[in-house]
Design a protein that fits this description.
Length: 94
Amino acid sequence: MPDAATLTADELIMGQHLVQTLNLDGVQAADIAPDAALFGNHAEGLGLDSIDALEIALMIQQHYGVELRSEDKEARTAFESLRKLTQFVLFKRS
């Protein structure tokens, strides 16, 4: 498992939002590998599904004021990892 030092402060906060929003029992934000896949069955990933994506999009809109649109290719790419999601949201927010 990675340690918190591998995550930026923004990634750690985003990870905490994900853990809370999705009720990820037994998962700590600091344990999420920043470049691991969020969706699907990958060894280091979270194994999230499309329902989780909807919950994440709602959380991002509420916490960051950023609307994720399914037709936006950049938004779809952002869901690949915690790092990409955090970078995308921070870019759109600024």
